[in-house]
What does this fold into?
Amino acid sequence: MAPILEITKVSKVFNVPSVRRNTVREHVFDAFRPRPVEKLRVLQDVSFSVARGETLGIMGRNGCGKSTLLRIVAGIYQPDHGNVTVRAPMTPILELGLGWNADLDAIDNIFLIGSVMGMSLREIRSSIDEILAFAELEPFANLKLQHYSSGMGSRLAYSIAFKAVREILILDEIFAVGDEGFQARCKQRYWDLKAQGHTVLLVSHTPSYITEFCDRAILLEQGRIRAEGSPRTVCDQYLEVTSQPAHPDFELTPAAG
It folds into this structure.
């Protein structure tokens, strides 16, 4: 059976201006000069596959390319090189609060975000009570989101996403959100989805989460896969990598034009 997800030699580069203009004089006299840029290689020839029903853990220090990789898998970014093959519907839980309308209350935002995540109006209507209960926000259902704390907003976002989940689920530090009670509910929801055969990409900096929830793991370092294998082995290498200084891969090049 073909993997449900295949990443083949994916690379991504971002251009970062290398010269700052801090004064009015610099802005006036340097405005027509080409600005050199630094090409930041975020991902370099990344390849892996995920089997149907598998949970793959992704680890790496901040800036190693994890978030960019998730956005490419979710279709938010396009790779500069390589291919991504996804063979099932996907629910990415990446940017908490992305698409919220702060002037609307929780119920209206459930309709808004649930629709974006692919839920039908019938599904949303029948799920409102369950979503609010999961997030423990029933007393605040009619409160505008501009008055929510960041924690309340996070719980609502994850509660909607867990209800809207399709066959593939991408989770970014899900078990680090909320209090212990909410984290326990998230963990139980994960095990329920796992039992139903869902495929999961789980990003976390916490080795215990990777070893507890994942069947296999990969370690990213400087945009490349440094290790792949059992969660315990990858966690050990992650701890070794994070004990050393980071060295971002920059290349100074002339600006276009």
Q: What stands out?
A: The mean pLDDT is 85. The helical segments are 24-29, 66-73, 106-116, 121-135, 150-164, 180-195, 207-213, 231-242.
